[in-house]
Amino acid sequence: MNVRTGLAGIAAAAALALGAGCSVLPNRSHVGAFVDDAAITSTVKTRMVENKTVDADAIHVETHNGNVVLSGYAKNPLEKDTAESIAMKVVGVKSVQNNVAVRP
């Protein structure tokens, strides 16, 4: 009986988690926009990690309706520009606002 109760609890938790993901969020035209934004953010961060010029841990990426906002700190102007270039090349990106500050 304990196994059955545990499995029912897991199934209920999974259903709630998946159901919550299907709700429409404020300021979004549809759920797909949220998924697309998450995919864009993930792709930008992955490409930054793969790039030797950019310290991906120091640059934060947020995406809203395909518009990417970069913030954080860069060691030099090249790193800042490279981060912006990486973001612009990701499919689905409409614009990039580069708020990365260059540390002195």
Report on the structure:
The structure is a single chain. The protein is an alpha+beta fold and 104 residues long. The protein has a single domain, classed as Histidine-containing Protein, Chain: A, CATH 3.30.1340. The chain has 3 helices and 3 strands, in the order H-H-E-E-H-E. It has helices spanning 2-20, 31-50, 77-88, and strands at 59-64, 67-74, 95-102. A 3-stranded mixed sheet has the order 1-2-3. Helix 3 (77-88) links the parallel strand 2 (67-74) and strand 3. The longest helix has 20 residues, at 31-50. The radius of gyration is 19 Å and the shape is globular. The protein starts with a helix and ends with a strand. Mean pLDDT is 82; it is low at 20-25.
Q: What is this structure, in a nutshell?
A:
It contains 3 helices and 3 strands; from the N terminus they run H-H-E-E-H-E. With 104 residues, it is of the alpha+beta class. The protein has one domain: 2-Layer Sandwich (Histidine-containing Protein, Chain: A).
Instruction: Name the helicity range.
Output: 40-55%
User: Got a strand count?
Assistant: 3
Trace the largest sheet across and list its strands: 1-2-3
CATH topology: the name is: Histidine-containing Protein, Chain: A
Q: What proportion of the residues form beta strands (DSSP E)?
A: 15-25%
How does the overall form come out from the CA principal axes? globular
Terminus-to-terminus distance = 64 Å
Q: Summarize the biggest pleated sheet.
A: 3 strands, mixed
Radius of gyration: 19 Å
